[in-house]
Amino acid sequence: MKYFFYSLLWLGLATGLGGCASLSYYGQAVAGHLDVMQRRQPIESLLADPETPAALRAKLEQALAIKEFASQSLGLPDNGSYRSYADLQRPYVVWNVIATPELSLTPRQWCFPFAGCLQYRGYYDEADARAFARRLAARGDDTYVGGASAYSTLGWFDDPVLNTMLHWNGAQLAQVIFHELAHQQVFIKGDTEFNEAFAETVGIAGTRRWLEAHGNPAALEAYETRLERKNRLLEMIFATRRELAGVYDSNLNDDVKRERKQALLAGLKQRYRELRDNGWQHFADYDLWFKGGLNNAKLAAVATYWQLVPAFMQLLEAVDHDLERFYDRVAALGRVPTCRAAPVADRQRPGGRLRAR
């Protein structure tokens, strides 16, 4: 899974937030964000430089083409984002910490100026993220630290293409650029699930159009296969979450709840292994995710991005896949908190398959 970290957090320094922990956190956000911005180089300049390696040149040309497609064919912001490149010389741009109580699926939230309350806390240094996660775990929380390959500054800055994004194939690179640009299109302060599911929906719909426009049936078929496999895995994860919710809401004592929690998580891991080895013909893309162990926080990270996607897909279908109307409908729903849950009724009943066009 990928996550994004609102580097606008550094503006919080101007609000007079007190406390050593707050100042330390905002300080790393300032330094980390400025480092990313200072590393930017115009892609056009890199393409004109004969010293630019051929592999990097090809990826940057593709990124520029994806950006142009986003602006011209998807109605996403036409600005300076993804027209520059930054090599951070590390595998992720930020590491996000997600935490839940031991016997709850509800993520803890941290609130910041401008971005509102988020279900994760981001760090530009992995060691800092893991240290924070250890402090939360020491008080009894389930925690998960996930590396993010990209993030959005919501249009306040020109977000660059990062070296952390270039290991993906063309479809995956397109999806992440469309996803991050979607955050600039519509962003609802304080509703992480709403924002992420909307951006994922735009990313998927946009990538399908990108692959169709470039006449690559094989790549489109491979992309749909990966989505189908992810859907199967999501169904299993959401089914496990529903079972866990039943355990946590029951009158069982905490020791029994802990035992059943571990049994359900072990069962999820076993079902994945069986699906991988039998149904997927040893497709092992998710092995690393399972290898790190399972807990409430890790399952919450998945739900944040995907739980509401089916409902957004339905909304996209309801406007005949007209993205401009879709953006307007989503923005209007976001302005009315009591109505925002209407197209995302799956909030209390997660799961469901992504709908193909």
Can you walk me through this structure?
The chain is mainly α and 357 residues long. The protein is 55% helix and 8% strand. The chain has 13 helices and 8 strands. Helix 3 packs across helix 5, helix 7 packs antiparallel against helix 8 and helix 7 crosses helix 10. It is globular and about 65 Å long. The N terminus and C terminus are likely disordered.
Furnish the topology, listing elements before pairings.
Blueprint: H1 20-38, E1 41-42, H2 43-48, H3 54-73, E2 84-86, E3 94-100, E4 110-112, E5 116-118, E6 121-123, H4 126-138, E7 142-148, E8 161-162, H5 170-185, H6 192-213, H7 217-248, H8 254-279, H9 287-291, H10 296-306, H11 309-318, H12 323-335, H13 337-340
Parallel strand pairs: 2-8
Antiparallel strand pairs: 1-2, 3-6, 3-7, 4-5
Helix pairs in contact: 3-5, 5-6, 6-10, 6-11, 7-8, 7-10
* Strand order, largest beta sheet: 1-2-8
Supply the number of helical segments: 13
Q: What would the principal axes of the Cα set say about the shape?
A: globular
Number of strand elements: 8
The helix fraction, in percent, is 55-70%
Overall residue-averaged pLDDT value = 88
Main sheet? Answer: 3 strands, mixed
Radius of gyration over all CA atoms, rounded = 20 Å
Strand/helix succession: HEHHEEEEEHEEHHHHHHHHH
Give the terminus-to-terminus CA distance: 23 Å
The share of residues in extended strands comes to: 5-15%
Helical/strand content category: mainly alpha
